[in-house]
Design a protein that fits this description.
The complex is a heterodimer of chains A (321) and B (247).
Chain A: E1 3-6, E2 9-10, E3 13-14, H1 16-32, E4 36-41, E5 58-62, H2 72-86, E6 90-94, H3 97-110, E7 113-118, E8 129-134, E9 139-145, E10 150-154, E11 169-172, E12 182-189, E13 201-205, H4 215-224, E14 228-231, H5 233-237, E15 258-262, H6 268-274, E16 279-284, H7 291-294, E17 297-300, H8 303-320
Helix pairs in contact in A: 2-3, 4-8
Chain B: E1 2-6, E2 9-11, E3 19-20, E4 25-26, E5 33-35, H1 37-53, E6 58-64, H2 70-79, E7 83-87, H3 94-108, E8 112-116, H4 127-135, E9 139-149, E10 152-159, E11 162-169, E12 172-176, H5 188-194, E13 199-202, E14 211-217, E15 226-228, H6 233-243
Parallel strand pairs in B: 1-6, 1-8, 6-7, 7-13, 8-12, 9-12
Antiparallel strand pairs in B: 2-5, 3-4, 9-10, 10-11
Helix pairs in contact in B: 2-5, 3-4
The chains are: A alpha/beta (321), B alpha/beta (247).
The structure holds flavin-adenine dinucleotide (FAD) and adenosine monophosphate (AMP).
The site of flavin-adenine dinucleotide (FAD) has 25 residues of chain A, from α5, α6 and α8.
């Protein structure tokens, strides 16, 4: 048995979610008394040997430039070959956009049972039972995988990255890469901001902010905290904010360390996208707003008065520490 | 143009989530079942719009589930599907479900297969990618816009930290989410005609389930909110810094 972790990279850099997957895979290998190895595709700018700090012994690199563009079908094909080559029995992905696109295809290709949205290491005392998030964060299911090869994709922000010491051996793999049938014609990256699903802190606004012209106070707070910005669905539906910021059941699901909700009522469909956040702060003028029931800290008050003060106080705190 | 739309049934978004039999089964008592929102609002509605543009388009629906799925599949027919297949079996395992859809898809020679981004109960986001691999078709996940240009699909999709637009020759499997279409309400004529549309029940193909749910858990209850006065914002900052260690 060995563990193989897929490393997602963009523009040559390893994603934070992949570092979590590496740490998870490294810990899983320790738990099962085996080794953890990783795979990465395309042109990479980083020193791959340094990834040994996350508990892996080897990095298999397929350097073909054809893999600089992501195509789920091509990636699944190449990953399946690496799985075969390395005789891996557990394959770990991050359950980010890339993982969602490619992990199921690999599962079908190598006939592996798959658990997506995993939140903890498997319990191997009786089978191979992985805890995953279900009902949009409202519950967990423990799922046993019975196939010989097992695939886990780990929810972002649910496993802490730990960097220790160690160097990985980098192995250049020569795997044939099939031709992509997909032509990418435009890419728009959200630049200069913190990507929502990777953010440690998210500041989110609802209809209580009254209009797009009032988002300045929210952005100031987010900027001060190096936070990503988000919003409730009606805010995106009214085009006050771009749709990729909409969190909830039908939008993006986030699980940051800190979620600050400004003028959001806390409808069940909104909570479904944010209730895995570690700490939730709610600022709402209505003491009966349902969001307070899901919150850790709250202020009953007017966002237009409280938020600028909050930004000021945080700046003071940052200057003092 | 022949399109297959994968339809699953899920508890209504406001359902109370509870478990029974020592936390091994979902408590279905009092739950209202709906079409999984991603399948209905985005995948199905977009397929209907494509048929409105090109009336020669044929829309087939497939659901893998027991007889209790039929009200949901009838509603999908009422919205605008032409005919439906129900594979008569019940499973939580993605590989098993995908194999059943693959068997139906293989026989229908579809140009396009739509799924939702994920089911809102199991949250697998897996079926589309698996079916695509089984059919050796390209897979475009998390689509936010879908158009056809002759026999080429033009799709915008969510990627890590942004969005990209891509083109691919049919056939292709696409998972749909917000942006692809807008929710619709079935009209009376649709509801009436759905009663006579074909709903074919097929028996499952032999396949293995590679996973099984052993138990469920509810998240630990929150300790309750700590309220701070609106005139004492500094205290909130102190709590977040010192107690929650969040900033
Ligand atoms: C099937 C389905 C799926 C859905 N999916 C989603 C989803 O993914 N995400 C989502 O967000 N919603 C979703 N919704 C909508 C959801 O039910 C709510 O309608 C929505 O979340 C409400 O948004 P809101 O809190 O911004 O607005 P409102 O409910 O209007 O709340 C505004 C809040 O701001 C407060 N407020 C007003 N003025 C101030 C002020 N000056 N200072 C402080 N507070 C103030 C009010 O007290 C109120 O609590 C979905 C609905 C359905 C039916
Ligand atoms: N039992 C099922 N029958 C038909 N389609 C399904 C079924 N389960 C899932 N799907 C489709 O696959 C998508 C993703 O589901 P999942 O991988 O379970 O999150 C759903 O949005 C549906 O379109």
């Amino acid at each position: 048995m060995s563990v193989l972790i897929f490393i997602d990279q963009a523009e040559g850099h390893v994603k934070k979610a992949s570092l979590e997957a590496l740490t998870y895979g490294g810990d899983l290998a320790k738990q099962t008394g085996t080794t953890a190895e990783a795979m990465v595709f395309g042109t990479v700018a980083e020193d791959l040997t340094a990834l040994g700090r996350y508990g892996i012994s080897k990095v298999h690199h397929v350097s073909s430039a054809a893999l600089d563009h992501f195509d789920a079908q091509v990636f699944a094909n190449v990953i399946a070959k690496v799985v075969e080559e390395t005789k891996a029995t557990v394959v770990v992905f991050s359950h980010n956009q890339t993982g969602k696109a490619v992990a199921p295809g690999v599962a079908a290709a190598v006939k592996a049972g798959i658990v997506t949205g995993a939140v903890a290491l498997p319990d191997i005392s009786n089978g191979f039972v992985v805890k995953k998030s279900v009902f949009s964060g409202k519950a967990f299911a423990n799922v046993n995988i019975s196939s010989e090869i097992k695939i886990i994709s780990l929810n972002p922000n649910s496993y802490k990255t730990v960097a220790g010491k160690g160097m990985a051996e980098v192995i250049e793999l020569n795997v044939p890469v099939p031709e992509s049938k997909i032509k990418i014609t435009a890419v728009s990256k959200v630049s200069g901001e913190v990507p929502l699903t990777e953010a440690d802190i998210v500041v989110s606004g609802g209809r209580g902010l009254k209009g797009p012209e009032n988002w300045g106070i929210l952005e100031d707070l987010a900027h001060t905290l190096h936070a990503a910005t988000a919003c409730s669905r009606p805010v995106a539906d009214s085009h006050w904010r771009p749709h990729h910021e909409h969190v909830g059941q039908t939008g993006v699901q986030v699980a940051p360390n800190l979620y600050i909700a400004l003028g959001i009522s806390g409808a069940i469909q909104h909570l479904a996208g944010v209730n895995r956040s570690k700490t939730i702060v709610v600022i709402n003028k209505d003491p009966e707003a349902p969001f307070f029931k899901a919150a850790d800290y709250g202020i009953v008050g007017d966002v237009f008065e409280v938020v600028p003060k909050l930004t000021e106080e945080i700046k003071k705190m940052q200057a003092a520490s | 143009m022949k399109i297959l739309i994968c339809i699953s049934k899920t508890p209504d978004t406001t359902s109370r989530i509870a478990f029974k039999d020592g936390n091994t089964k979902f408590e279905e008592n009092g739950v209202q079942w709906i079409i999984n929102p991603y399948d209905e609002w985005y995948a199905l509605v977009r397929a209907i719009e494509l048929k409105e543009k090109d009336p020669s388009t044929v829309l087939h629906l497939v659901t893998v589930g027991a007889a209790d799925c039929e009200p949901v599949i009838r509603k999908a027919l009422a919205l605008g599907g032409d005919e439906a297949y129900r594979v008569n079996t019940q499973s939580d395992d993605s590989f098993y479900i995908a194999t059943q859809i693959f068997e139906v898809a293989k026989q229908g020679n579809y140009d396009l297969i739509f799924t939702g981004k994920e089911t809102i109960d199991y949250n697998g986001s897996s079926i589309g990618g698996m079916v695509a691999e089984m059919l050796s078709m390209p897979y475009i996940s998390l689509a936010t816009k879908f158009d056809l240009n002759g026999s080429t699909a033009v799709v915008a999709r969510e990627i890590e930290g942004g969005e990209e637009v891509c083109e691919v020759a049919l056939p292709v499997v696409v998972s749909c989410q917000k942006g692809v279409a807008e929710q619709r309400i079935p009209n009376m004529r649709g509801i009436m005609s759905a009663r006579t549309k074909p709903l074919k029940v097929v028996e499952p193909a032999a396949a293995e389930a590679l996973t099984n749910i052993t138990s469920y858990e509810l998240p630990p209850v929150k300790a309750g909110v700590k309220l701070v006065g609106a005139d004492n914002v500094a205290e909130l900052v102190r709590l977040l810094h010192e107690e929650a260690k969040a900033i």
